[in-house]
């Protein structure tokens, strides 16, 4: 049965979404998620749209895999959750809480993860210390934009934080770092450690009021000390407002993610003469700094639980992919185990 079997009211929902957002250059993420759900309902005749039948969600998950969502269960779950919230706004509950549904949904989720392939076509690469050094070689620290960008790159690489702390998306600048969130110890002029408070993150919503801290120690042996760059940028950009955003565009507005990515790729292209290996610029974006930081620490032997703390991961499992445990490491573990026997001799 096709969409023609649906009511005119159902088709009006999609028309309303189209008309409301057709003239906007950027749609909100919430509306994009909802529009995909409405499109599915009309194309497949899965009506009524609201309230949504429980079986519709099972069908929707599979439909998503053939309609642009290639990130497996994680991607499908985001769209399903958006549809659940859509229902809630009209007074309908979560279908997963219904009697006899939770067991079937759990089994479906389990089989989905096993049988549905995940394709990461846009997987970004970690940026390396050499990439940032190559960019720094072509930078002029007397230029405000060069100083801003180089400070951002070292800050992101050392702290391993998400791009939302220096550049915003269409959702706003809620997570962007403010001047009131940074502290120089023991003083600004004689600083040895730079402390930074992240008041909200992807894993810690602002409403939860559970910030976390990170820190960068002065590295005087390096030609580009991250803390000295931060101090220099602070002197130039701070205007006396502790709520001011630390990294901004030339207009003074918070830096956008698209501008950040475009500028990063341009600077990587300009730094190509200083690199020994050619790179695919499209493989680098804001997430590359977080990946670069954690993979660097993992390769240096930092264990998963410390990586989780450094990156504010929701669980240690999220950090395991960055650790490197070689056969030599495992052979070394046998020496530790042997001490338990030696102690008994």
Description:
With 345 residues, the chain is mainly α. It folds into 2 domains: 3-115, DNA polymerase, domain 1 (Orthogonal Bundle); 129-300, Intergrase catalytic core (hpI Integrase, Chain A). The chain is 47% helix and 5% strand. The protein has 12 helices and 3 strands, in the order H-H-H-H-H-H-H-E-E-E-H-H-H-H-H. The protein has helices at 8-21, 29-44, 54-65, 72-88, 101-115, 129-137, 144-159, 226-237, 257-270, 287-299, 304-311, 327-342; strands at 182-185, 193-198, 212-217. Strands 1-2-3 form a 3-stranded antiparallel β-sheet, with helices on one face. Strand 1 (182-185) and strand 2 (193-198) form a beta hairpin. It is globular and about 70 Å long.
CATH architecture of the largest domain: Orthogonal Bundle
Largest sheet: 3 strands, antiparallel
CATH superfamily of the largest domain: Intergrase catalytic core
Q: Unreliable segments (pLDDT under 50, ≥5 consecutive)?
A: 1-5, 21-26
Describe how the helices and strands are arranged.
Blueprint: H1 8-21, H2 29-44, H3 54-65, H4 72-88, H5 101-115, H6 129-137, H7 144-159, E1 182-185, E2 193-198, E3 212-217, H8 226-237, H9 257-270, H10 287-299, H11 304-311, H12 327-342
Helix pairs in contact: 1-2, 2-4, 3-4, 6-7, 7-8, 7-10, 10-11
Task: Give a short synopsis of this structure.
This protein is mainly α.
Structural key phrases:
3 strands, 5% strand, disordered N terminus, hpI Integrase, Chain A, globular, 12 helices, 2 domains, 345 residues, mainly alpha, DNA polymerase, domain 1
């Amino acid at each position: 049965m096709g969409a023609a079997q649906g009511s005119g009211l159902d088709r009006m929902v999609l028309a309303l979404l189209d008309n409301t957002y057709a003239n906007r250059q950027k749609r909100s993420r919430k509306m994009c998620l909802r529009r995909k759900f409405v499109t599915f309902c009309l194309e497949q005749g899965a009506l009524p749209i609201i309230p949504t039948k429980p079986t519709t969600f099972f069908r929707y998950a599979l439909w998503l895999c053939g309609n642009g969502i290639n990130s497996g269960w994680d991607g499908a779950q985001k769209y399903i959750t958006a549809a659940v919230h859509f229902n809630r706004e009209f007074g309908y509950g979560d279908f997963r809480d219904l009697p006899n549904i939770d067991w079937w949904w759990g089994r479906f989720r389990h089989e989905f993860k096993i049988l549905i392939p995940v394709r990461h076509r846009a997987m970004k690469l970690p940026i390396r210390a050499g990439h940032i050094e190559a960019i720094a070689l072509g930078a002029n620290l007397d230029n405000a934009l060069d100083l801003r960008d180089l400070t951002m790159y070292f800050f992101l690489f050392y702290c391993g934080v998400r791009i939302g702390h220096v550049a915003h998306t269409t959702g706003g600048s809620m997570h962007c770092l403010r001047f009131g969130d940074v502290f120089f110890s023991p003083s600004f002029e004689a600083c040895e450690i730079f402390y930074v408070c992240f008041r909200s993150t992807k894993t810690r919503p602002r409403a939860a009021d559970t910030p976390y801290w990170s820190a960068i120690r002065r590295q005087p042996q390096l030609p580009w000390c991250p803390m000295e760059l931060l101090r220099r940028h602070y002197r130039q950009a701070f205007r006396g407002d502790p709520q001011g955003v630390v990294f901004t565009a030339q207009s003074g507005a918070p830096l956008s993610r698209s501008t950040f990515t475009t500028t990063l790729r341009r600077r990587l292209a300009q730094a190509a003469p200083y690199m020994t290996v050619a790179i695919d610029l499209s493989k680098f974006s804001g997430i590359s700094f977080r990946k670069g930081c954690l993979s660097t620490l993992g390769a240096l032997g930092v264990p998963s639980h410390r990586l989780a703390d450094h990156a504010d991961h929701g669980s240690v499992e999220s950090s395991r992919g960055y650790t490197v445990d070689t056969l030599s490491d495992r052979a070394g573990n046998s020496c530790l185990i042997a001490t338990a026997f030696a102690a008994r001799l």
